[in-house]
Design goal:
The complex is a heterodimer of chains A (about 425) and B (about 270). Chain A has a domain at about 60-185 and about 300-415: ABC transporter involved in vitamin B12 uptake, BtuC. The two termini of chain A are about 20 Å apart. Chain A contains 17 helices and 2 strands. In chain A, about 45% of the residues are buried. Chain A is mostly helical and about 425 residues long. Helices cover about 75% and strands about 0% of the residues of chain A. Chain A is globular and about 65 Å long. By secondary structure, chain B is α/β, with parallel strands linked by helices. Chain B has 2 domains: about 5-105 and about 190-265, P-loop containing nucleotide triphosphate hydrolases (Rossmann fold, 3-Layer(aba) Sandwich), CATH 3.40.50.300; about 110-180, no CATH class. Chain B has helices spanning about 5-10, 15-20, 70-75, 100-105, 120-125, 140-155, 170-185, 200-215, 230-235, 255-265, and strands at about 30-40, 45-55, 60-65, 85-90, 90-95, 105-110, 135, 135-140, 190-195, 220-225, 235-240, 245-250. Chain B has a 6-stranded mixed β-sheet with strand order 6-9-10-3-11-12, with helices on both faces. In chain B, helix 7 runs parallel beside helix 8. The longest helix of chain B has 16 residues, at about 200-215. The chains are: A mainly alpha (about 425), B alpha/beta (about 270). The interface of A and B includes residues 278, 284, 290 and 300 of A.
C-alpha cells in the first residue's frame, strides 16, 4: 500500500495537467457525470443543419424568438426536474400551469381587477397548493405519482375548462393586463439588457472563481486555473453574444430591440433552482432520495418531508411556466393541450441529461433540453417541414437521449 | 465483574479460568446485554442472550443461518427493540428504541447492503444526514477536508479522489467508505454485518485490516461473519449463537476452527436456561 503523501501528490500531478482533465472527460461523459457535453454538441449540430437549410435561423430576430419559444419548455422541464430527480413524475404539470395562468387572467379582468402582482402571486399560490396536495396524496397514501398525476392530468383539465367557460368569453380569456402581456412580449431596454447580463455574469463568474480559490486555499485538488479561466471566459463571451443578439434591431416596421422579459425569468428560476440543488441540504437530500431512498432514511433524512418539498417546488415552477404560457399565447383557452405540454417537458428534461430513473440531473439540463426542443420546432417550421416530420424528429431526439441516459446508468451500476 | 464471565463463565468452566486470569478489576465493558429476548409473534428469535462487547476489541458473532445473529445486532442498533432483557452502555442501563437513539449513544451499524447512494460522491455519502453548513449553505470544503482526514487515518488510500461517485467504487472500497462513515461520527461501537461477504481476496484483506485498525483505536467492533477464516484472522473474542441462544463466548485463543464449526452446527455446550 502506498503512503498517503505519495498518493495525494500523484493525484495532484494527474489533475494538474490540462491533458488529464480532457482525458477524464470522456469517462465522465460515458458515466453520465458530464452529460452537458454530448447534448451541447447535438444542439450545435441541429443549429448548423437548420442554418445551412435556411439562413434566417441564426438571424437575431429568429434567435430571440427561439429563446422565447424555449422558455415554456424550459420552465415546465424545470418543474419536472424536481420530481425526476426523485424518480417520480408529474403528468399533470401542463394543466396545473394552465390552471395557474387561468387564475391570474381571471383575477386581472374587468370583473375582479386585482393588481398585477397579487394576481400573479395568486396564480403561483394555486399551482403550489396543487403540487402540495398531489404530493400529500402520493406520500400519505403511498400511491405511485404516475397514477395520481394522471388523475391530475384529467381532473385539472376539467377544472380548467369549467373556469374558462364560466367566463362566457367563448372558450378563451384574453390577457388584457400589460404586465402579464409584457412578460413575453415586452423587452428590456438595450441598456438594461447590458446591465442585467453584466450583473448575472458577475455573480456567476464570482461564484466560480471563489469556489476555485477557496479549494486552493484549503489545499484541496482543484482544476487547473487555466481551465477555470477558460470557463469564465466562455461564459462572458456567451453573455456578450446573447446581448448582441437581443440588442440587434429585429423590428420590421418599428425598432424592436432588447432582451425579452422571459429571459430574466428563466435565469432567475435557473439560479434559484441550481442554488437549492447544489448548495442546500434540501437539494442534497433530493439527490440522495433519488439515488437510494433507504440509504437516505437510514442516514436520518426525513424522506417524506423532502419528497413533499419537491412536489411543492414543482407546483411553484409550474405556476411561473403557466404565466409565461398565457403571456405568449395572449390568453388562456379551454383547448390548452396540457398532455402534449407535459410530454415535451419531460422530453426536454431528459434530452438535457436528467435521468428518468432518479438521482441524476441538473436544473441547467432543463434549459439545454428546452432549447433543443424549441430549435427542432422552430427550425423545422423555417424549412417548411410538416408537423408530422416535427413530431417524428422530436421522438428520435428523445429516444437517443433516453438511450444515452440508460447507457450512463448501466455503466455506473456495472462497476 | 469481569469482562468475559457474562454468558459463558457458568456454563463452560474451562473458559472461565482462562478468561478471568489476566483481566483484573477492569471497567465494565462498553456494551453489556443481559437476558435479551425477542419474540416475533409466537416465534422466539432470541432466548435470554447475555453478551459483553468490550472496547478496543473485535468480537465476532458467528452462527448458522437463523441462529439469531441479525436479530441480535438489530436489537443493539435500535431497529428491533428487545421484548425483554437489559442493555447496559458504559455501565448505564439504556433503552434503544430507535436507530437514532443508538446512533446518539455512539453505536454505528454497517449493514450488508451498505446503504450508500451510488449517485453521490464519497464526501456526500460520508456526510449524508450530517452535512456541515456555513451561513445555511453546505460547507463543501470542511466536509471534503474532514473526509480526507478520516480516510487517511483509516489508511483508505485506494480511492482516486474523494469526489468520485460511490457508484464507481469497488466492493471493498464501498465497504471501507461505509465503515469510515460509521466511524466518523464519534462512534464507540461499530457493528458490521458480513463485511467481507461480497468481496474478493485482496479486498477482504483490506477490510479485515481496517477492522483491526478500528479496534486498535479503542473502538469496539461487533462483526457478524460466516467466514471462519476471517473470524480467526481478525477477532479477539468469539460469540457463538445457536437457535436463538448464545452458546459460548470467550477469547479467540480458546477456540479453533473445528470447535467453532461444532458449536455452530450442533450448539454443543449450550447451557441450561435459568
Amino acid at each position: 500500500m502506498t503512503s498517503p503523501e505519495q498518493t495525494v501528490t500523484e493525484k495532484r500531478a494527474e489533475s494538474a495537467t490540462a491533458q488529464g482533465v480532457i482525458g477524464s472527460l470522456w469517462g465522465k461523459v460515458r458515466s453520465g457525470e458530464a452529460s452537458l457535453l454530448p447534448i451541447l454538441f447535438g444542439l450545435a449540430v441541429l443549429v448548423a443543419y437548420f442554418q445551412v437549410r435556411n439562413s434566417v435561423f441564426l438571424s437575431a430576430g429568429n434567435l430571440t424568438n427561439l429563446f422565447v419559444q424555449a422558455t415554456i419548455f424550459i420552465l415546465l422541464a424545470m418543474a419536472e426536474t424536481w420530481l425526476l430527480l426523485l424518480g417520480e413524475i408529474d403528468l399533470s404539470v401542463g394543466y396545473v400551469a394552465a390552471l395557474g395562468a387561468t387564475t391570474a387572467v381571471i383575477l386581472l379582468d374587468a370583473q375582479f381587477h386585482w393588481p398585477w402582482y397579487l394576481a400573479l402571486l395568486a396564480a403561483i399560490a394555486v399551482t403550489t397548493a396543487i403540487g402540495l396536495l398531489q404530493g400529500l396524496i402520493i406520500i400519505k397514501l403511498r400511491l405511485p405519482s404516475f397514477i395520481v398525476t394522471l388523475a391530475g392530468l384529467l381532473g385539472w383539465e376539467g377544472v380548467l375548462i369549467f373556469f374558462v367557460d364560466r367566463q362566457g368569453t367563448g372558450g378563451t380569456i384574453p390577457v388584457q393586463e400589460k404586465v402579464l402581456y409584457d412578460l413575453v412580449n415586452g423587452n428590456l431596454s438595450p441598456l438594461a439588457t447590458w446591465i442585467f447580463t453584466a450583473a448575472s455574469l458577475a455573480i456567476f463568474c464570482w461564484s466560480i472563481l471563489r469556489k476555485d480559490q477557496s479549494r486552493r486555499a484549503s489545499g484541496l485538488e482543484a482544476v487547473p486555473f487555466v481551465v477555470t479561466l477558460m470557463k469564465v471566459a466562455a461564459l462572458v463571451i456567451a453573455g456578450i453574444v446573447l446581448v448582441l443578439i437581443f440588442n440587434t434591431n429585429r423590428g420590421t416596421f418599428t425598432v424592436l430591440r432588447g432582451m425579452p422579459y422571459a429571459i430574466p425569468v428563466d435565469f432567475v428560476m435557473l439560479t434559484v433552482g441550481g442554488f437549492i440543488l447544489t448548495r442546500t441540504k434540501a437539494g442534497r437530500y433530493i439527490y440522495a432520495i433519488g439515488g437510494n431512498p433507504e440509504a437516505a432514511r437510514r442516514a436520518g433524512v426525513n424522506v417524506d418531508r423532502y419528497r413533499l418539498l419537491a412536489f411543492t417546488l414543482t407546483g411553484v415552477t409550474a405556476g411561473v411556466a403557466g404565466l409565461i404560457y398565457a403571456s405568449r399565447l395572449g390568453g388562456i383557452s379551454d383547448g390548452v393541450d396540457g398532455g402534449n405540454l407535459v410530454l415535451l417537458a419531460v422530453a426536454s428534461a431528459v434530452i438535457g441529461g436528467t435521468s428518468l430513473f432518479g438521482g441524476r440531473g441538473k436544473i441547467i439540463h432543463a434549459v439545454i433540453g428546452g432549447m433543443v426542443i424549441a430549435s427542432i420546432y422552430n427550425g423545422m417550421a423555417l424549412i417548411n417541414m410538416s408537423a408530422a416530420t416535427q413530431f417524428i424528429a422530436t421522438a428520435l431526439v428523445l429516444l437517443v437521449a433516453v438511450a444515452m441516459d440508460s447507457v450512463a446508468r448501466r455503466s455506473t451500476a456495472s462497476r | 465483574m469481569t469482562t468475559t464471565s457474562g454468558s459463558t463463565g457458568r456454563a463452560v468452566p474451562e473458559n472461565a479460568t482462562h478468561a478471568v486470569g489476566p483481566e483484573v478489576a477492569s471497567p465494565p465493558p462498553l456494551l453489556q446485554l443481559r437476558g435479551i429476548a425477542k419474540h416475533f409473534g409466537a416465534v422466539e428469535a432470541l432466548k435470554h442472550v447475555d453478551l459483553d462487547v468490550p472496547a478496543g476489541q473485535v468480537t465476532a458473532l458467528i452462527g448458522d443461518n437463523g441462529a439469531g445473529k441479525s436479530t441480535l445486532i438489530k436489537a443493539v442498533a435500535g431497529i428491533y427493540p428487545p421484548s425483554s432483557g437489559e442493555i447496559f452502555w458504559e455501565g448505564q442501563r439504556v433503552t434503544l428504541h430507535s436507530p437514532r437513539a443508538a446512533e446518539e449513544l455512539g453505536i454505528a451499524t454497517v449493514y450488508q447492503d451498505l446503504a450508500l447512494c451510488d449517485n453521490l460522491d464519497i464526501v456526500q455519502n460520508m456526510y449524508l444526514g450530517h452535512e456541515a453548513t456555513k451561513h445555511g449553505t453546505l460547507d463543501e470544503i470542511t466536509m471534503e477536508l474532514e473526509t480526507r482526514r478520516v480516510l487517511t487515518e483509516l489508511s483508505v488510500f485506494t480511492v482516486r479522489s474523494v469526489r468520485q461517485l460511490v457508484g464507481s467504487l469497488s466492493g471493498g472500497q464501498r465497504q471501507a467508505i461505509a465503515v469510515a462513515r460509521a466511524v466518523m461520527h464519534e462512534s464507540k461501537l461499530v457493528i458490521m454485518d458480513e463485511p467481507t461477504a461480497a468481496l474478493g481476496v485482496t479486498q477482504t484483506a483490506q477490510v479485515l485490516e481496517l477492522i483491526t485498525r478500528l479496534a486498535s483505536r479503542g473502538i469496539a467492533v461487533l462483526v457478524i461473519s460466516h467466514n471462519l477464516n476471517d473470524v480467526f484472522t481478525v477477532a479477539d473474542r468469539i460469540a457463538v449463537m445457536y437457535l436463538g441462544t448464545l452458546v459460548e463466548c470467550g477469547p479467540i485463543a480458546n477456540y479453533d476452527t473445528t470447535r467453532a464449526v461444532e458449536l455452530i452446527t450442533t450448539g454443543a455446550g449450550a447451557r441450561v436456561e435459568g
